[in-house]
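Suppose a classmate hands you a notebook page containing two proteins, each written out with its sequence and a corresponding row of C-alpha cells. How would you begin to make sense of it? This section walks through that situation. The first entry is reproduced here exactly as it would appear on such a page.
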Amino acid sequence: MKMRIVVIGANAAGAKASSKAKRINPKAEVTLIDRGAFISYGACGIPYFVSDTVADVKELMSTAVGVVRDAHFFKKVKGVTVQSGIEVTGIDRESKVVQLLETTTGQSSSLGYDRLILATGSSPFIPAIDKVGLPNILTVKSIEDAELLKNCAISGDRACIVGGGLIGLETAEALQKKGMQVTVIEMRDQLLPGVLEPEMAYLVEKHLRQQGVTVMTGCAVTGFIGNTTVEAVRIGGQELPADLVVLAPGVIPNVGLARNAGLDLGVTGAISVDARLCTNDPAIYACGDCCETNHLITGAINYDILIGAKFYHAAPANYP
C-alpha cells in the first residue's frame, strides 16, 4: 500500500516539503492542501509588486523560467496533487484523518494520511488598539493584501507604516516609489530590531531619511482616528495625519489546528518540534512559520516570531 502524505499549507514551506517528500519516496501519494486560491507564491516579493517593480502578480508564483506554479505544474512536474480552496477544520490523530471543508460550497469531506505535515504559516499580528479595523488599515501577507495595497497606494497621499522590521521597510520603499509620503513608526529605539546591531540600523535609518522617508523610533501607536477611513495615527498625545496605514509589527504562528489536535506548543506559542521537525505525534511534522526553530550556532530557540506580540502585550495562548 502506498504511503499517504498530506501537507497542509501550500506556500513556501508546504510546497517545498511536498516536493521533497515525493522526490524521496516517488511511490508515495502526496497531497498538498490550501484554503486560499493562490499557492506557492513569494511573499517576500509582494512589496515589489506594489511598487510596480514586479509588473504582474503571476511573477510572484512563477519559476525562474516563467512557469506559473499552479496545481497543473505541481501535478505534472512534482507529482503532487494540489487541493486549493479547501480548509482543514480538524485532525483526528487516532484515526489519522483530516477533516476538510470546501470554502466555496461548504461541502465537508475527509482525507486519510500516514504522515501529516503542518505548514500553516503565520498571520500578521493585529494590535488591539482603538479603531484598528478601519478599512484603509492594511497588512502585507497575502496576494490579496498585495492587490488591495497596490490599489490604495495613491501618489501624494500620506502612508504610515507601523513597524520598522523587514516587512515594514520593504513596504515603505514600495509606497515611496509609488509617490506616497511615507512615515515609519517603530516602538523600539532602532529599525530592524532583532536583525541588525544599532550601528548598522543607524545606517539604514540614515538611508531611508535620505530617500525622503520619515522615521520615528521609540514611538508607540496608541490608536487611530477616523470614522469611515483612517485620518490620523495617534502616538501618545500626538496625532500624525495618514490616508493609509500598513500594520507590520510582526507575525504570529497559525497554531489553532495543531492546538485543537492536542499537539504540543513551545514557549514561543509556536508548534514544538524536534531536530527532525517532528511534533509530539510521530506521524505529524511541522515546518515554516508555524513551528519553533533553533539558532544554528547557539541551539537556543529563536524568539523572532514573538517580536510584535511581545511588545504589544499579547500572550502566546491567544495566538490563532
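The notebook's second entry, a different protein, reads as follows.
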Amino acid sequence: MKSIIIKNKNKFSLTVLILLSSAWISLSLYSCGANIYSVDDDVQLGNEIKQQIADESREFPVLQGHQDVKDYVNGLGNYVINNSNYIKYKNIFPYKIEIIHDDSTVNAFCIPGGYIYVYTGLIKFLNNEAALTGVIGHEIAHAERRHMTQRLTSYYGVSLVLGIVLGSNPNQLGQIAANLFVGLGFLANSRADEEEADNYSIKYLTGTKYYPGAITFFFDKIKEEQRINGTTPGDLDRLLATHPLPQDRIDNVNLKLSKIKPKPDPTKGLYTDEYQRMKARLP
C-alpha cells in the first residue's frame, strides 16, 4: 500500500510539474514572439479558414456583384503591399480582400496568409480613402507579423509539449482551423498586437501618397460615436471585442506620428472625393 501511495504521489507531482512547465512555456513563447508554425503553415491555415468562411455565407455574406467596388478596395491593399519596404511576404501570402455585405457591423479582420475581410458597415462608417487604407494597413500588419500563429504557438505549443509527454498529437492544422472558426474566437487581438499593427500601419503609409496617420480618423470616428451615444453603439461591439481601443493605444499612435519629420499634414493625402464616389456605388 505504501509503495502505491508513493507511486501515485510521484505521478501527481509529475503532472503538476508538467502543467507548471507548460504554463511557463506558454507565457515565454508568447512574450518573446516565438512562432512554431512556418510561413507555409500560415498560408495553409488561412486557406482552411477561408473555405469555412465561404461555406458560412449566412454569417459572412460576401458582397455579390459590384466588381468596381471590390477592385477599388483591393487596389488600396495592393497599393500598400507594393509601395512599402516593410512587406516581407507579398510573394508568399496570397493577399486578397473580400467585402462582407453587412452594414450593421463596423469591422475588418485578417486571417493567416493575408486574407482580409472588410465589412460594408466599416466602409460606410469611414469618410475618406486614407482612413480605409490605414485600417487595411493595420490588417496587413496582423498577417505580416503573423499574430494569429503567434497566439496559436502560445496555446497549441503547450498542447504540443503535453502531447509529446502523454503520447497524443493534437497539433493538426485542419483541426486547429476548425477550432478557430467556431465564433472566430482567436481573432481577438491582444493590446500588444493591436499596438504593433498600428505602428506598422503608420510605417506602411509613411512616404506614400496617403497621410501616414490615417488610422487616427478611424479612432476619432469611434470616439465620436461613443460620445454622441453615451455608450458604445451596437454596431461597434464586434470591432472593439476583437480590436480593443484603450487610450494608451491612441496615445501610442499620436506619439509615433509626432516623431515623423517633417511633420505630416493631416489635411492632405486623404482622397475624400474619390472615396465618397465609391461609397455611393455600394448597395
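A careful reader of the second entry would note: The longest strand covers residues 96-100.
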